[in-house]
Design goal:
seven-stranded mixed β-sheet, two-stranded antiparallel sheet, 41 helices
């Protein structure tokens, strides 16, 4: 095989001839220009025999490509819409609901964010109309104008990103120029079929200055006039001199006369220019809110913004007004309400689809009922927590103390039944009460405290610390006239925290999983519900790496924390999460031993692994294993309460809250979990959280600007259109070997062996060998890719708890590494594989693409890059019993090496693949660009993809790939 040192573009031969090149015969093909060289981006002449001749017509392919382009663009636009519409408040609520920032598909995120915005509007968010003076519009770049823009976006619950700010200023500047609008501009708008957006109106004003014809003469009673009247009557406009003249003008100027076009011309003629500044700004934020850009705002038709903001009092109130005889138009509002109902249904459907649960009316109804009752329970009286379940099986309250519902009957459904009558009675009496949701409403706080004046004195009598949880428990017991003692106090506190943890644990994503499993979360007993919800949440909620990354980002941003404090905070964070990951096992061990539960004793227990506590501590993240020995109901209540307080502390823990806790009380380690949680809760972390959210929202902006190939890959491999997917694909494309080297560079044996023993180097070699053997069938390769993804996932989880992972950058690298292998496993479904290779002691990644096409045709694409070999790409095409193609390398030495192994490679191909002829070229191209090669070959392969390949061809392609992998082993 002779090496062509000129480049792929120079591989040309005479039609019909075959030239011998070493031991391989290279098929001569007709030369044809193919535009951009997939290897280096230049315009070469390429053998068309290597590529598929499309059987579809040019029009078919053009339509197909246009449809694909629209799909790619739509996915990118969805990301841009999110970046320009998700506000800080939306993000916080989104995260509070247990949703991962990086993992959810943009379409589902848009549905969820829409629901959040609507809920905020119903809850009384400031969404009033905008007030902007004429002076502001005259200085759109000035401080007053920018302040007005900021206020408008805040009112609409939209982020004022740099892009939003720039485009809003541009829209205001353009609107200022709209001082008049000629007939020529109207004609331009109609003939170009343009919507009356700010930008279009400006363009029409500048472009439509040509003369227009006067209205066409049409006498009364003529057929033309009759037709004109007919059109006007079908429109929403009255038949009058103005509309008749406009109709005649349209006919004279070749503008089609229809009811719709007439209404549009009339609207353009009736515009009041220049538009009011407030009207422009209002329409701008409405455009952004609905996913468009400021310059595309239509200030002539504010669609639905104000109607939704009026829902706080609107629909039901207006129906009442109608009944009282007050005339009000409900038609538009009814449309809005129906639209909101559809959006709510979409919201439930999006979560069910994520959970892969059947999207049935029954499941949607159960989802809706669960969310409704959870919402209602949060606002029901906390005093119901000390009442037994309202049914015949409930026990009476004994004289000596408190009787809560039996554990197996203590469900949210029963609690709802118990609390509803109490709420009704208190509401009718106009009596203030605190709700089951632990926060006390500010407007009710004083009256509640006055009703229970001596709470702190009673706690002192019991020698109990004065904490919000103890005070609340006293009020609950006192309202129900139940004896106040330590046992009853702990029982109520335990139940209170169990219920509030259920509120936190039952995120929409978790509820969807319960429904998928055929369970109603409202019917499960509280202990089992929380246990299961936590398990599900770990699997489908915010991943551990995302939580840890958030903590580290905040830690790195806080400049007031010393290096010593930083190490201490990381240790405390890990301890809290470790207790949480093991279901509070260390807490149960301390309670069973009769030891005092403090932060110090918990840290000692987790670190020491004392046998008296019957638990051990592993080195990996979440390594505590404890067998609890609770003695009685009081111990059970105490254990449950302390566990829940640790979980609350873990959620409240941040660098700023810990810094504040240490400053408030140097003896924080001697505090109970309850007291420690309250120290954390008292800190003002708003600035810290805002800074973090601002940084995270930038990831949407960055993702929206990702290059086209990223969104093509998302579409091609049917990947979720999420921030995580975009980030991982960018990582893969810019650093093709990084993930493989990260994984193979780890030196922790536990990544490879469940027992923590074994030779790591041997294990890595075994993994390489498995991939070589798997390259026989699509099924075996998919299994090997899935196995690699599982190893990477395990590696990430293990490394999160190692001393090597101390910065947010460390966590990000682990997350991207694991994400790449997850996507690789998904891509394997489309026969694209990312294979670990080792050549001359260097580890790297080889990308293998196999496309089985129609009529016994198929393609094998291979590419990799190593410092020792440089860039290497191969395109091997099977057609019938013949294999044609090329191997290209940008290093001459690498091309020489392939040449030296040509005979062995040829024999291997002919013997293993079942092919009868091999016709290849080797190319030394110093301009070889793997990124361009991958992008161009993907587009070409799309023409073959989707066709059912023959079994013989598929086997030949995989054996060809296996032969190539074997060839590399000889380098």
């Amino acid at each position: 095989m002779r090496i062509e040192e000129l480049g792929l573009s120079d591989i040309t031969m005479q039609s019909g001839a075959i030239q011998n090149r070493g031991a391989l015969s290279v098929a001569a093909e007709e030369t044809k220009s193919f535009g951009v060289d997939p290897l280096n981006g230049h315009a070469p002449r390429i053998q068309k025999g290597i590529y598929e001749k499309p059987s579809k017509t040019a029009n078919d392919l053009a339509a197909e490509m246009e449809a694909q382009e629209q799909t790619y663009a739509a996915k990118q636009k969805e990301m841009a819409v999110l970046s320009n519409t998700m506000s800080k408040e939306d993000f916080k609520e989104y995260k509070e609901n247990g949703n991962s920032l990086h993992g959810m598909d943009t379409r589902d995120m848009l549905t969820v964010v829409d629901k959040i915005k609507i809920s905020m509007a119903k809850g009384g968010a400031d969404v009033g109309e905008i007030s902007v003076s004429d002076e502001v519009i005259r200085d759109v770049g000035g401080e007053a104008a920018l302040s007005a823009i900021q206020k408008a976006y805040d009112q609409a619950d939209l982020p004022l990103t740099e892009e939003n700010r720039r485009d809003t200023v541009k829209a205001l500047e353009l609107s200022r120029e709209l001082t008049d609008f000629s007939d020529g501009a109207v004609k331009y708008m109609m003939q170009k079929d343009l919507e009356p957006t700010i930008e279009n109106l400006y363009i029409a004003k500048a472009s439509g200055q040509a003369d227009t014809n006067p209205p066409l003469d049409a006498g009364e009673g003529t057929p033309l006039m009759d037709q004109i009247r007919e059109v006007i009557e079908e429109s929403t406009l009255p038949v009058e001199e103005k509309t008749v003249e406009e109709s005649r003008w349209m006919i004279a100027n070749d503008v089609p006369l229809t009811p719709e076009s007439l209404e549009k011309v009339h609207e353009l003629h009736e515009m009041v220019l220049p538009p009011e500044p407030a009207e422009v700004l209002d329409s701008v934020v409405e455009a952004v809110r609905t996913g468009d850009r400021p310059q595309n705002a239509d200030f002539l038709a504010l669609r639905r913004g104000r109607e939704e903001s009026r829902l706080v009092m609107s629909y039901e109130a207006r129906e009442t007004m109608e009944k009282l005889g007050v005339d009000t138009d409900l038609s538009e509002l009814q449309k809005t309400v129906e639209s909101l109902r559809r959006e709510e249904k979409d919201y439930f459907e999006s979560y069910l689809k994520q959970a892969k649960a059947p999207v049935t009316d029954e499941n949607i109804a159960l989802f809706h009922e669960t969310e409704r009752k959870l919402s209602e329970l949060k606002e029901m009286p906390a005093y119901a927590l000390a009442l037994p379940a309202a049914d015949k099986d409930s026990k009476e309250i004994p004289a000596h103390g408190l009787a809560l519902p039996p554990a197996d009957k203590d469900s949210l459904e029963r609690l709802h039944e118990t609390a509803q009558p109490l709420k009704t009675r208190l509401d009718q009496a106009g009596e203030a009460y605190e709700t089951m949701r632990t926060e006390i409403r500010k407007d009710l706080g004083d009256s509640i405290r006055k009703a229970f004046r001596n709470v702190d004195e009673r706690l002192k009598d019991l020698h109990m610390p004065i904490t919000p949880e103890n005070e609340r428990a006293v009020r609950i017991l006192s309202y129900n006239q139940i004896e106040l003692n330590e046992e009853n106090l702990m029982a109520v506190k335990a139940r209170d925290t169990e219920v509030n943890r259920a509120f936190s644990n039952l995120t929409p994503r978790v509820v969807a999983e319960f429904i998928k499993n055929g369970e109603n979360p409202l019917d499960l007993n509280m202990t089992e519900l929380n246990r299961r919800a936590v398990e599900i949440g770990r699997a489908v909620g915010i991943p551990a790496e995302e939580k840890y990354s958030e903590f580290l980002v905040k830690l790195e941003d806080n400049k007031g924390i010393t290096p010593e404090e930083r190490e201490s905070y990381i240790g405390i964070y890990r301890m809290l999460r470790q207790i949480e990951e093991t279901d509070g096992a260390a807490v149960g061990a301390l309670v069973a031993e009769g030891a005092e539960v403090t932060m110090r004793s918990l840290m000692t227990a987790v670190r020491s692994g004392r046998r008296s506590l019957d638990y051990s501590v592993g080195d990996d993240f979440g390594g505590v294993n404890v067998k609890e020995k609770v003695r009685n109901a009081t111990d059970q209540a105490e254990t449950a309460f302390h566990k829940n307080m640790i979980y609350e502390a873990a959620d409240a823990f941040s660098p700023e809250s810990m810094k504040s806790a240490m400053e408030r009380d140097e003896r924080w380690q001697d505090k109970s979990p309850e007291e420690f949680y309250n120290l954390l809760k008292e800190a003002d972390t708003m600035e810290e959280e805002d800074a973090y959210v601002t940084g995270q929202l930038k990831s949407f902006t960055d993702a929206a600007k990702a290059e086209e190939e990223v969104y093509r890959a998302i579409e091609r491999f049917e990947l979720p259109n999420s921030v995580e997917t975009v980030e991982v694909l960018q990582y893969m494309m810019s650093n093709p070997n990084a993930a493989m080297r990260k994984l193979f560079g780890m030196k922790n044996p536990k990544l490879w062996n469940a027992e923590g023993e074994g030779d790591l180097e041997e294990a890595q070699k075994e993994l390489l060998r498995r991939f070589g053997e798997a390259a026989e069938t699509p099924e075996d390769m998919a299994k090997a890719q899935k196995n690699l993804a599982d190893i990477a996932e395990n590696a990430m989880k293990t490394m999160l708890g190692s001393e090597e992972t101390r910065t947010s950058l460390d966590v990000r690298e682990l997350r991207l590494m694991a994400g790449q292998f997850r996507l690789s496993a998904k891509a394997a479904e489309k026969q694209q594989y990312h294979i670990p290779i080792e050549v001359q002691g260097e580890t790297g990644e080889l990308t293998l693409k196999i496309v089985s096409g129609r009529e016994e045709k198929g393609v094998v694409d291979i590419m990799f890059s190593l410092s020792s070999l440089g860039n290497v790409a191969a395109k091997l095409r099977a057609e019938g019993q013949t294999l044609t193609g090329y191997i290209a390398a940008d290093h001459k030495e690498t091309a020489d090496a392939f040449r030296e192994r040509e005979e062995a490679f040829t024999r291997e191909l002919l013997s293993s693949s079942g092919l009868s002829e091999v016709k290849l070229s080797v190319v030394n191209d110093t301009r070889l660009d793997l990124k361009r090669f991958g992008a161009e070959t993907d587009r070409e392969n799309d023409r073959l993809r989707g066709e059912q390949g023959s079994e013989v061809t598929t086997r030949a392609l995989y054996r060809t790939a296996k032969s190539f992998l074997s060839l590399l082993n000889d380098f």
